[in-house]
Amino acid sequence: MTVLLASCGTAVVKQSTKWVADAKYLENSNMLRNKGLGLTIDKSNVIFAYMSTNNPIHVRLAGNFNGWHTIQDQMIKDTNGIWRITKTLPSGTYQYKYVEYGEKFVDSEMKWFQDPACTNAMYDGEGGFNSCFNIE
């Protein structure tokens, strides 16, 4: 399996104006990936790694691979403050976001975030974007 981060398959890909206009954002994404954040593939597993500046109590992964469930895929925080989860996924086009709970937010409130280390995005139908990737 390989991951293609340059496109999202046949789906329409749209980068936000900020991404197109702001070279600093792309530079920051590259820096985050160099620190081991974002997506990596290990054989048939997709490893998601995310660091938040909000000091959340919980972080979960939601995407079209799990029906956008916000409690199904709990991420584990390592000693470096990086939240990680590994998913085994078949070939396909995937969209996802990280869901944070607590600390800067009311405990019962959740906030959705794109992956800052992923420069590929698809319109989410809610006025924002989902991070996306392909597995072939």
Annotated CATH topology: Immunoglobulin-like
What gap, in angstroms, lies between the N and C termini? Answer: 6 Å
Catalogue the unreliable spans: 1-21
Structural class: mainly beta
Radius of gyration: 14 Å
Mean pLDDT: 77
Number of helices: 2
Beta-strand content bin: 35-45%
The count of strands amounts to 11
Order of helices and strands: EHHEEEEEEEEEE
Task: State the major sheet.
Answer: 7 strands, antiparallel
Number of domains: 1
Helix content: 10-25%
CATH top-level class: Mainly Beta
Principal-axis shape equals globular
CATH superfamily: Immunoglobulins
Just name the CATH architecture.
Answer: Sandwich
Summarize the model shown:
Helix content is 12%, strand content 39%. It is mainly β and 136 residues long. Residues 1-21 have low confidence and may be disordered.
Provide a descriptive summary of the structure in words.
The protein has 136 residues and is mainly beta. It has one domain: Immunoglobulins (Immunoglobulin-like), CATH 2.60.40. The chain is built from two helices and eleven strands; from the N terminus they run βααββββββββββ. It has helices spanning 17-21, 23-34; strands at 3-4, 38-42, 45-50, 58-63, 73-74, 76-77, 83-88, 92-101, 110-113, 121-123, 129-135. Strands 1, 4, 5, 8, 9, 10 and 11 form a seven-stranded antiparallel β-sheet that branches. A hairpin with an 8-residue loop joins strand 8 and strand 9.
